[in-house]
Amino acid sequence: MINPKKFPVVKTDSLEWVFVTRNAPDDINELRRRYRYHPLDLRDILPPVQRPKVVARDGYVFMILLFPIFDRKLRQIRATEVDFFVSPERLITVNVDGYEPLKGLFESCLQGSSQRRICLSGDVSQLLYAVLNDMLMSVFPMLVHINTDLDSIEKRMFTQYEKNLIQELLRIKMNVVNVRKAMQGHRHTIQCLVETAPAFLPIHRLRDYFDELVDHTKEIWETLQIQKDTVDALHETNQSLIDFRINEIIKTLTIISVIVFPLTLMAAIFGMNVENMPIVSHPQSFWIILALMAAGSGGMLFYFKYRKWF
């Protein structure tokens, strides 16, 4: 039996759940010494984050899954790795990031709540299902939050121009990408677990429940695909709006420069220091020149309006 001071344990007479939150060398050695797990599986516990997989060993099943975790401070989503060692009388979970759904479920079981009866009243396959189901269900509120952000971005995009809108859009896009990275292997891994489970892991008794987990992964992936398409469309729309605003600014500046050109030209001509300059010697030369400038500018404005350039 593992020392509870080293790893928290919740157990019944026939089943225990060992909750590992560290992957330091002495923790790895403890698992190796107590249970003689395969060195390759113990190595996969160490950084960096591994790809999802399931491997049947002699007397246990080793599985890796990734789950999205939200950093409230940075408002960013990243992947956290959860490792499973599943044997007939024991489930060992390894996660070093304090993944809240997993931690919360274990603490509920540790406190002797009704959750403990649900998780530990059967065999290890029932406990594994409860853990996987709780973690998968925790993804849905995250997807709802992403949808809320996308709706907010869409409203702001068409009502007001904000310089930080593109940063917000890119943040959401990166969050969607990171959730997709975490969830893309779940369906295949859980299906592989169900189809290749050894005899000591009676998943076949809960086949309908594990099929429900697969359905959850499909629903999550379909939602993520819709969100990916939405954020791509919003990004293209925002880029089109930016291009439109830039074109409007360039058009306005061009019109101003063309209108100012006759004024500049006349000022340059009548400002030349030459003899016999027409109009200059006239008593009302200033007003005549001013009228010519106004007529030139007015003519330009009328022409632009006639061509519907503004």
UniProtKB/TrEMBL annotation:
CDD domains: TmCorA-like. GO terms for cellular component: plasma membrane. One of its GO terms (molecular function) is magnesium ion transmembrane transporter activity. Keywords: Cell membrane, Membrane, Transmembrane, Transmembrane helix, Transport. It is found in: Cell membrane. It is a multi-pass membrane protein. It comes from the Bacteria. The chain crosses the membrane at residues 253-274, 286-304. InterPro entries: CorA_cytoplasmic_dom, CorA_TM1_TM2, MgTranspt_CorA/ZnTranspt_ZntB. Its main location: membrane. Belongs to the CorA metal ion transporter (MIT) (TC 1.A.35) family. This is Magnesium transport protein CorA. It comes from Candidatus Uhrbacteria bacterium RIFCSPHIGHO2_12_FULL_60_25. The lineage of its organism: Bacteria, Candidatus Uhriibacteriota.
